[in-house]
Amino acid sequence: AQSVSQHNHHVILSEAASLELGCNYSYGGTVNLFWYVQYPGQHLQLLLKYFSGDPLVKGIKGFEAEFIKSKFSFNLRKPSVQWSDTAEYFCAVNARNNDMRFGAGTRLTVKP
Amino acid sequence: NAGVTQTPKFRVLKTGQSMTLLCAQDMNHEYMYWYRQDPGMGLRLIHYSVGEGTTAKGEVPDGYNVSRLKKQNFLLGLESAAPSQTSVYFCASSYSRRVGSYEQYFGPGTRLTVT
Description:
heterodimer; A: about 110 residues; mainly beta; 6-stranded mixed β-sheet; 4-stranded antiparallel β-sheet; B: about 120 residues; about 55% strand; globular
């Protein structure tokens, strides 16, 4: 079965710092990849997704992610974080079936 | 367009009690899902449905039952609640694979405590 690993459990940054959150998955076939964000007290919202094509995808709020097939990775990046980016971030993988697997999440705290 | 809604938002149960969580979506999505979210474990799929009248088990189905009598509603039942079922429950929905989109839309969650 597919699995998703997010290695950073809690990341603390100052405003304007650059962000990179790691996501690795284990599945040998074709996958769809997602990053979701959960702001405090809110439900999950889609940040960005990759289905095919350009492996560098851009999402909302200045986030981007790069799919590296050879490394089974889909890392999330943002050049300059803001205090409002404080949230929990989830990587998810769907092996083109009904089964979406989520990583354990990375909590991001941005200090003003 | 309310998207995905869940009722109730909060609930406290005693061990052994039963309850039903209701999920409703107004986007005409074929697929619906129930997840539980626990600290350090992300979201885990409990059950899902690929259409009205159909349900299937996910990753952690034990202790839960579901029904999809209407396309827009997906019910999650706990017949005999246990403290291990204390969690935040999220419902989600998505278009079918025919549409080629696998993005899931989430509800606001239900926080359940079993004492």
